[in-house]
Specification:
262 residues, 5-stranded antiparallel beta sheet, 4-stranded mixed beta sheet, elongated
């Protein structure tokens, strides 16, 4: 595959700097205002039209008009979750800013937006998370916060992002030994941890939630208590952790676990 023409992190930082230095500098970010001010009004080489309609087959798409430098971004108004629509908007903008020399069309569904194995889709997600949740604000406002459900909710509310996107961004930036685990039916779907977090015996897709964990007990008992609790060394052979749970209310059965090693 051809390499991207623009690094997604650097491009997100560039647009963030424009927003904070010359734009309204308000958060949650108004992506429409960012596009209008930083792209549509700045003599940008390619044209971009944003079209919001109801579609059946995708959540977002970016399409080039044949033989031109004109692009149309299609955003599906059928998606009822506001935060999901915002992230899709930022994701498609990432394709436009970073990948438009690689393809003439991008089309994203829930599966592609969550495909961590696809380099292009992962880069668009990185762009979106860096744009919507700038490192300087996240560090300044949440560096002293305990890693737990309430912090995760607060980050999501502050930047109007999903809990999964908020957790990924926080863990990537955090210097403390923390982890975030997404599971369903007692089985891990995916997980991420900070650079300082130790080896975890249950971490990969298909691993069972470890015996003795608050996560497994919550799943087995139907306990939706989000309070932070101390857990014996079951995620790691030697270190106790603090655990906090959150069960997704969308009906898809996801369970989110915030882990902070002691």
């Amino acid at each position: 595959m051809a390499k991207t023409t623009t690094d997604p992190k650097k491009e997100a930082i560039r647009l963030t700097s424009l927003w904070q230095q010359h734009g309204p500098n308000t958060y949650p970010m108004d992506i429409d205002a960012l596009v209008k001010g930083a792209i549509l009004s700045s003599g940008f080489s390619d044209q971009l039209v944003i079209d919001r309609q109801r579609f059946d087959s995708f959540e977002g798409s970016l399409v080039r008009t044949n033989g031109t430098r004109k692009w149309t971004m299609l955003l599906n108004t059928r998606v009822s979750n506001d935060r999901r629509r915002r992230f899709t908007f930022a994701h498609e903008l990432g394709h436009f800013m970073c990948h438009r020399e690689l393809r003439d069309k991008f089309e994203d569904s829930e599966d592609s937006l969550n495909d961590f194995r696809d380099e292009i889709e992962t880069e668009a997600n990185v762009f979106a998370s860096w744009l919507l949740m700038p490192a300087n604000l996240l560090r300044n406002e949440f560096h002293d916060a305990a890693w737990e459900t309430e912090t995760l909710r607060a980050i999501g509310n502050r930047f109007e992002c999903s809990l999964q996107a908020s957790a990924l961004r926080y863990v990537q930036l955090c210097t403390k030994p923390v982890a975030f685990v997404v599971s369903r039916d007692g089985m891990i779907i995916w997980a991420t941890k900070s650079k300082s977090a130790p080896y975890m015996s249950s971490y990969c897709f298909g691993d069972e939630l470890p015996n003795g964990s608050h996560a497994l007990a919550s799943y087995q008992n139907g306990d939706d208590d989000t309070q932070r609790k101390t857990v014996e060394p079951v995620w790691n052979d030697t270190r106790h952790v603090f655990e906090s749970q959150y069960f997704d209310s969308s009906g898809q059965g996801y369970q989110y676990t915030c882990i902070e090693f002691q």
